[in-house]
Amino acid sequence: MPKVGMPDIRKPQLVKATMAVIDRVGLHAASIALISKEAGVSTGIINHYFGGKHGLLEETMRAILRQHSVTIGGLLKALPADAHQQRINAIISGNFEGFQAENMVAKTWLAFWSYSMHDAQLKRLQRVNEKRLLSHLRIELKALLSRDQAELVAHGIASLIDGIWLRGTLNPEGINADKARALINDYLDKQLTFYSSNSKTTHKND
């Protein structure tokens, strides 16, 4: 975490520089020297406020997660509390638009995703993000499905989001947000129709 006193203007500058360097040379080759040169600051500033490369990487991941949360929160606030399927669609869209969909951000996220398997703190941040996504989805899905069904569909949507992100970042053309939304919403519609049909059949047989 950055030390108290780090000028607010420097944080986004350094985060952007970190993502640019990771995009260009990869996470392991993204040295403090390259990042400081990209940001136009001395290596001493990074070491002083972040304690080195790892602290700056952690702050960069936190910045991405904060922006992600702001994006989804804003989309949900614009919708009625009882518009559950629309709110699920908004959660899905929030993973594929704006800041999150920028190629540089997507590559940085993928690099962190891989690195987090071997770093406890980054893994914790990744788990926080995963739990937040599933929590958002469960809240809306439980209004439409049983608890067990909601749990299953929430994990299905989360898996599709992760898979599309992975494929998109490995694709030179990046993530196709329209196709991503269409694919996941198709899955959601089919699941809701399937469970709704089964519920009607069960009640009819009763």
Largest β-sheet summary: none
Strand and helix order: HHHHHHHHH
Tell me the CATH topology.
Tetracycline Repressor, domain 2
Task: From the alpha carbons, calculate the radius of gyration and give it in angstroms.
Answer: 20 Å
- Helicity range: over 70%
Q: CA-to-CA gap between the ends? A: 58 Å
CATH class: Mainly Alpha
Residue runs with pLDDT of under 50 for 5 or more positions: 1-5
Helix-and-strand structural type? mainly alpha
CATH superfamily: Tetracycline Repressor, domain 2
Strand content: under 5%
How many distinct folded domains? 1
Fold topology:
Layout: H1 10-25, H2 32-39, H3 43-50, H4 53-77, H5 84-94, H6 103-115, H7 120-141, H8 147-170, H9 177-205
